[in-house]
Amino acid sequence: MQPGASFQNQWQLITLIPDLRARVVSAEWLPGVLHLDLALRVPADEVQLQIIHAGSAVGHQIGRIKPGEQQFEIPDDAHKLSLFVVNRAGDCVAQMHLGSIYECYGKAKSAADELQQASIDLAGGESDTVEFKPFMLQKDSKESEFVKTVIALANTYGGRIYVGANDDGIPQGETEVCRIFQSSTAEAVAQQISRLKSLVREKVKPVPAVDIRQITLGIDPVVIADVRRGENPPYATHQNQIYVRRGATSRIADPTELRSLITSTDLNLMGETLSNY
After folding, report:
1. Mean pLDDT of the chain
2. Is the distance from CB of 185 to CB of 161 less than 8 angstroms?
3. According to a count of CB atoms within 10 Å of the terminal CB, is the N or C end of the chain lower?
4. Is residue 5 part of a domain?
């Protein structure tokens, strides 16, 4: 403050308390629809959602809301959305602005980023970090190929295995996964994920960090095995077969590559020892 200056509330302590009556957990604007996830700490009948459609012939809409996930139709000619959660007294208790179609907020953003990455990977073909595999039943020959790829990625750069896609990166779809597992889509995908996790635990040593989860591209379920580059190579099968990734193939490590993997482990151990010291 400058000497002699006067400010409002100059010698007062002011505490600002955030309004937690309503909170936008996530929002995703896709063509024609808004997916919204709300957290409410007041009864749902005490608040309403007002959506302003900037640039649209239909200027706005007012809708009832509930806690959790819900969706609203959005005019195709809207250029921007402004969302306001308003209580009976007219107070705005939460707001959110989305500037364009496909814009996301919160957890929807990370999901959208993952879908975008998956679309890029599937369109780009197999590489040193991307592999495609079909849905596979237990003891299918493709299971050994999956294990080999997990080992190769963990020993090299890490990467992603898309299970439920053919060699061209085209998803096999709901009909095929239901046919293979003879169950509903949800049950079939759950069985596939459980089996892939078992393969990693039981067929690879040491067990690498692999995150296995489902995504949905349009209506097509696909399982991603996200393999992190390992910190304790070499990774191998229980028969001591060590694989590395070269281009779009996984192959047995040659002596030079094997020495490099072992040296990398020794350096990691040395670094940990020095750090502890």
Report:
1. 90
2. no
3. C
4. no
Domain contains 17: no
Burial 63-102, CB ≥16 within 10 A → b, else e: eebeeeeeebebeeebebbebbbbeeeeeebbebebeeee
Q: How many residues does the chain have?
A: 277
Together in a domain, 159 and 245: yes
* pLDDT level of residue 271 (50, 70, 90 thresholds): very low
Other CB atoms within a 10 A radius of the CB of residue 24 amount to 16
Residue 101 falls within a domain, yes or no?
Answer: yes
Q: Which domain holds residue 130?
A: 125-265
Number of domains in the chain: 2
Q: Token digits for 34? A: 């808004």
How far is Cα 208 from Cα 154, in angstroms, rounded to an integer? Answer: 7
pTM as predicted: 0.64
**For residue 12, is it within any domain?**
no
The CB-side HSE value for 5 (13 A sphere, CA atoms) comes to 7
**C-alpha atoms less than 13 angstroms from C-alpha of 86 in its C-beta half-sphere:** 14
**Average pLDDT value for residue range 239-261:** 94
Same-domain pairing of 129 and 256: yes
* Predicted local distance difference test score (pLDDT) of residue 187: 96
**Which pLDDT band holds residue 3 (cuts at 50, 70, 90)?**
low
